[in-house]
Amino acid sequence: MEKLTYCRFCNEKHIVSETFDKHGTVVGMFCNREKALITAFTVEWNGEDISGPISRFVDFNTDKAILRNIKGDKLRGLAKKLAYQFIQSTYAKDRKINYAFAVHVTLDELFKLREQVYHMPREVFE
Fold it and tell me: Helix, strand, or coil here: 16?
């Protein structure tokens, strides 16, 4: 179903689509112009919390020293790259996780990881 909602990517109200998991549960709202999830209502896909597996994947595959200084627009690009790699895994393929949903959750995990890394002393990375 489509709804008229404010889109943070387009900075205006326009019609966006609901995104459903394989069980038919609405998991978020999708901007058809930007091809991105505007908001996710949950981190569960098919009733299973995927934030843990994505968090471990992001933690293992991210250079923390670079993450400390990366800007917001580059962080979104990194989230897209990591989410694409994640959905290629057998874990994600078995669950048929949506790419846009994976990008949204990956971006949240990158923000959390960057916050943790930002508060670490610089000596840790040298």
Answer: strand
